[in-house]
Design goal:
Largest sheet of chain A: 6 strands, mixed
Shape of chain A: globular
Oligomer: heterodimer
Shape of chain B: globular
CATH class of the largest domain in chain A: Alpha Beta
Strand content of chain B: under 5%
Number of helices of chain A: 18
Distance between the termini of chain A: 60 Å
Number of strands of chain B: 2
Number of domains of chain A: 2
Largest interface: A-B, 44 and 42 residues
CATH superfamily of chain B: MetI-like
CATH topology of chain B: MetI-like fold
CATH architecture of chain B: Orthogonal Bundle
CATH architecture of the largest domain in chain A: 3-Layer(aba) Sandwich
Number of helices of chain B: 13
Radius of gyration of chain B: 24 Å
Strand order of the largest sheet of chain B: 1-2
Largest sheet of chain B: 2 strands, antiparallel
Distance between the termini of chain B: 45 Å
Order of helices and strands of chain B: HEEHHHHHHHHHHHH
Radius of gyration of chain A: 24 Å
CATH class of chain B: Mainly Alpha
CATH topology of the largest domain in chain A: D-Maltodextrin-Binding Protein, domain 2
Helix content of chain A: 40-55%
Helix content of chain B: over 70%
Chain lengths: ~425, ~290
């Protein structure tokens, strides 16, 4: 009897241990082949990435890539944290710049010495640089503004690109008179408002970084800022000439409205190209700036930034192999071809060239603005964590009539004071 | 000999209770105390170093963070309506479906099915219904009810979440109520009929007092469900518009993972735990008193 129970006991005690060990990951090096684990969030390129992986492995038979894509509806940041706290750390992963760079800094390998580091466009390098050291490889550039349907503009008799707020209002009126919805507003999405729309007011500051620091130390306020005041005029304009129920219109609905010719403009970026092509590949599209006042010169700008960066885990046993892969991606012809042709990325490195045929109309226009130095910065990665979501819900409160303009700016301030405390 | 049987009994207890307590320890207790520890630190959820913050997180929550109180207010209101409506609907369904209806087995399944679908999926399905389905119904019928921007304004979004919650959970409570109603002795009901009681009177004076144990269970379940509601809001409204439907659980999640203040999130979770524990204890004590035995 006793013997039997001990046997059972042993099993009972071993079972959890067995379960736990099952979660572990096999080592990096098996039979001379080194495995590099990659964790990334861009779902759009998942398929092309695995095709690229096959080509890389053919050229480098000693390295095997294991790519995991977690994104779309799932919360990438949370799952990445879970991976790190469970000890299952990837060798290469993707993060945003500025705040996220600082949060992950103690895990990041310094990449300043890599052969490609000097080719990174300054606009892209800045958000991954600390004390002159580069900690990541910018994945690509993206830019946004008002994407517009050139044919509908012609139909409504608009001949010139509206570069001022008044011109934009006139254009919107003409479109409306022609029976076309001027703006498709996807204001249900927090990132449309809290990242992109309100960024206009940050980026149009003479010095956005100093302005943000000023908000935190109390020397600046939202309510007293003239640029924020003007930005609200633009926001009002889009709603006045926009689709009904903007607060329950999501990203897909917004994009579909433009693609189907129901609306003439939408505040979005070149990342919508693929989806737009999927609905109607023959659309004649362009991107307009988002003017907040009536001076044409300083309004003729698009907002360009880096959505994500490849970084290497400093503690990884295979970081040399990881560097080989990143290097291959931006220096070999195959890698370059994948970046521009397959991912349809606007390259963030000067050594890679993007043509209109590869990038699509929207991407080419963003690249042109960037190269002409008519690009303003993306600032949401500099705001306190979680601030974009709060900004978005305050703006939604304003659009829904719950807050006045002053109330909205006060709400901005209150949330800033809460979130800027770490 | 005595010693041996005692040891064997101990061993048996260990075998049967051991694994469960082990998992309880690993999955519930240890994380709880870890959370308690983190609530006194300022940790961003990533760094290998944490710094001691004392009571700063708790002070910050009560002085500088309007969103937490706001989400508490939503959760309290939501719990009140969710609780009453789910139980009323669940009991009504159960009462009707214990009568002799020839479709009753099919109907029981139909009403129970929503509970089997996960909350996240339900949220997305209903989001589609509210945004697209209602809009086309509104266009077809012209009823203003369908033309409301259901997820677009604060008050309608609140009711939208309540509606989906009730729809999801009433079926489960119905099953509990059905078994309780079936256990009411037929003799008592017949006796009350003989005494001249109408349908309503026998419902109020015989059936309801005898299903009070089920009411205790159902109230407890619906309180804990609606207090912890997370996936429904996440999928349906993401807490919007203007944070009008942000539940406490969602607020805590955002604090820890979006805002990256893990310490602050843990402090909120501890406060939440204390409040839920107190409310649950009060509720169980209150309804226990009303239970009757034959």
């Amino acid at each position: 009897m006793m013997r039997r129970t001990s046997g059972w006991l042993l099993t009972a005690a071993l079972l959890p241990a067995l379960l736990l060990s099952g979660c572990g990951r096999s080592g990096g090096n098996e039979d001379g082949v080194t495995t590099v684990h990659i964790y990334q969030f861009k779902v759009e390129i998942a398929e092309a990435l695995s095709a690229m992986k096959a080509e890389f492995e053919k050229e480098h038979p000693e390295i095997r890539l294991d790519i995991q894509t977690v994104g779309g509806g799932t919360d990438y940041g949370a799952s990445l944290r879970a991976k790190f706290s469970s000890g299952d750390e990837p060798d290469i992963f993707t993060i945003g710049g500025n705040n996220e760079r600082d949060m992950w800094l103690e895990y990041l390998e310094d990449l300043s010495g890599e052969s490609w580091a000097g080719d990174v466009k300054p606009l892209a390098a800045e958000q991954m640089t600390v004390d002159g050291k580069l900690y990541g490889m910018p994945m690509n550039l993206e830019g946004y503004g008002f994407i517009y349907n050139k044919e509908l503009f012609q139909q409504a008799g608009i001949t010139e690109k509206p570069l001022t707020l008044s011109a934009l209002r006139e254009a919107a009126q003409k479109l409306q008179d022609a029976g076309i919805t001027p703006f498709a507003n996807g204001y249900q999405e927090w990132f449309v408002l809290g990242n992109h729309n309100v960024n206009v007011a940050f980026a149009q500051q003479p010095d956005p970084v100093a302005f943000i620091a000023g908000l935190t130390d109390g020397s600046k306020t939202f309510a007293a800022d003239p640029v924020f005041d003007q930005w609200v005029d633009l926001l009002d304009l889009t709603v006045e000439y926009g689709n009904p129920n903007p607060l329950s219109t999501d990203y897909n609905t917004q994009v579909t409205m433009l693609a189907s010719g129901e609306a003439a403009m939408m505040q979005q970026g070149n990342w919508t190209q693929g989806q737009l092509d999927g609905i109607d590949p023959d659309l004649n599209l362009g991107i307009l700036p988002m003017p907040i006042d009536d001076t044409a010169e300083d309004n003729d700008k698009l907002y360009v930034g880096v959505p994500s960066n490849w970084v290497i885990n400093k503690n990884s046993p295979v970081k040399e192999e990881a560097k080989v892969f990143l290097d291959w991606m931006v220096t070999s012809d195959t890698g370059k071809r994948y970046i521009t042709k397959e991912f349809q990325f606007i390259p963030a490195l000067d050594s890679i060239e993007g043509t209109e045929e590869d990038l699509g109309l929207l991407g080419a226009e963003v690249l042109a603005y960037t190269d002409k130095d008519q690009a303003l910065s993306w600032n949401w990665s500099r705001l306190p964590n979680g601030m974009p979501n709060e900004l978005s819900s305050s703006i939604q409160g304003y659009l829904g009539g719950k807050l006045t303009k002053e109330g909205m700016l006060k709400e901005f301030q209150k949330n800033w004071d809460n979130l800027s405390v770490q | 000999m005595v010693d041996r049987s005692k040891r064997s009994r101990l061993m048996q207890q260990f075998i049967f209770v051991g694994p469960t307590s082990l998992f309880f320890f690993v999955i519930v207790l240890i994380p709880f105390f870890l959370g308690l520890y983190y609530s006194f630190t300022s940790w961003n959820g990533i760094s290998q170093h944490t710094s001691w913050a004392g009571l700063r997180n708790y002070l910050h929550i009560f002085t500088k963070d309007p969103s937490f109180l706001n989400s508490f207010w939503f959760t309290a209101k939501f719990t009140l309506f969710g609780l009453v409506l789910t139980n009323l609907l669940g009991f009504t369904l159960a009462y009707v479906l214990t009568r002799k209806l020839f479709t009753r087995n099919v109907l029981r399944t139909v009403f129970f099915v929503p509970h089997v679908i996960g909350g996240l999926l339900l949220g997305f399905i209903w989001q589609f219904i509210f945004v697209r389905g209602f809009a086309s119904l509104g266009a077809a019928t012209g009823w203003s009810f369908f033309n409301l921007p259901w997820l677009g304004t604060e008050s309608t979004a609140f009711w939208a979440v309540v509606i989906v919650f009730v729809w999801q959970n009433a079926g489960y409570l119905m099953v509990i109520y059905i078994s309780a109603i079936n256990n009411v002795p037929k003799g008592l009901l017949e006796a009350s009929k003989v005494d001249g009681a109408g349908r309503l009177q026998s419902l109020m004076n015989v059936t309801i007092p005898l299903v009070m144990p089920a009411v205790t269970v159902c109230l407890f379940l619906s309180i804990s469900w609606s207090f912890k509601v997370f996936d429904l809001n996440l999928a349906l409204t993401k807490g919007g518009p203007f944070k009008a439907t942000e539940s406490v659980a969602l607020n805590i999640y955002n604090e820890a993972y979006t805002i990256s203040r893990f310490g602050m999130g843990s402090a909120k979770a501890i406060i939440f735990f204390i409040i839920v524990a107190v409310i649950s204890m009060l509720q169980v004590r209150a309804t226990k008193k009303r239970e009757v035995e034959l």
